[in-house]
């Protein structure tokens, strides 16, 4: 379980559409789309880290740069600034939102062999680049406690991947049938 800013659906869809067009073109077959959240901390919301925010608060984020590493198999966006705005006594207040990650980011895409958390390690040794049309973009999301939900969305799987999945499905069904026959 972890606390994160889950990106709103409209901004997420626009980032997924725009990022390839403005940067690298087309992803290789078999890559996975994430573009889901910015991690704040592990567990429930950490009031020491972010004393003013709570679950469901809307957070504004500004995209800082783009990190693309084909060798590792990751495409990510760094988040330059996260803030929470609220009104009290007719005055608008702005509160900075902190993350335990030294480089808050959104893992946009990764290949099947790469784990999204590898973005943390990559950002320790590689700088994200400013990219016209992406850097400086304002996006929003809501604070949410997330579990181990699956949110993988394969990007147009290749014919090989589809055939492999069908083969696994057939093998899985055969094993279940054999298991049932042994029980009888």
Q: Can you describe what's shown?
A:
- With 184 residues, the chain is an alpha+beta fold.
- It has 2 domains: 2-151, no CATH class; 156-184.
- The protein has helices at residues 9-22, 118-125, 159-183, and strands spanning 2-7, 32-33, 37-42, 58-69, 74-88, 91-96, 105-110, 138-146, 153-154.
- It is globular.
- The chain starts with a strand and ends with a helix.
- Mean pLDDT is 85; it is low at 151-158 and 173-179.
Task: List descriptors.
184 residues, alpha+beta, 2 domains, nine-stranded antiparallel β-sheet, 3 helices, 9 strands, 26% helix
Sheet bearing the most strands, described? Answer: 9 strands, antiparallel
* Fraction of residues in H or I helices: 25-40%
Kindly report how far apart the N and C termini lie.
Answer: 41 Å
Name the shape in a single word. globular
Provide the gyration radius in Å.
Answer: 20 Å
Provide a short characterization of the protein structure:
The protein has 3 helices and 9 strands; from the N terminus they run E-H-E-E-E-E-E-E-H-E-E-H. By secondary structure, the chain is α+β, with helices and mostly antiparallel strands.
């Amino acid at each position: 379980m972890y606390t994160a800013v889950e990106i709103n659906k409209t901004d997420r869809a626009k980032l997924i559409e725009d990022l390839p067009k403005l940067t690298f073109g087309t992803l290789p077959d078999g890559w996975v789309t994430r573009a889901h959240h910015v991690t704040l901390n592990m567990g429930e919301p950490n009031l020491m880290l972010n004393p003013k925010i709570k679950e469901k608060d809307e957070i504004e984020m500004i995209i800082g740069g783009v990190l693309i590493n084909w060798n590792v198999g990751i495409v990510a966006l760094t988040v330059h600034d996260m803030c929470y705005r609220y009104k009290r006594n007719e005055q608008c207040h702005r509160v900075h939102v902190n993350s335990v990650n030294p480089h808050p980011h959104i893992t946009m895409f990764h290949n099947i062999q790469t784990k999204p958390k590898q973005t943390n390690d990559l950002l320790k040794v590689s700088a994200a680049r400013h990219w016209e049309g992406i850097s400086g973009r304002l996006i929003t999301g809501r604070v949410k406690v997330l579990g181990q939900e699956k949110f993988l969305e394969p990007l147009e799987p290749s014919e090989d991947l589809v055939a492999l999945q069908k083969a696994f499905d057939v093998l899985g069904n055969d094993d279940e049938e054999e298991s049932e026959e042994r029980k009888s």
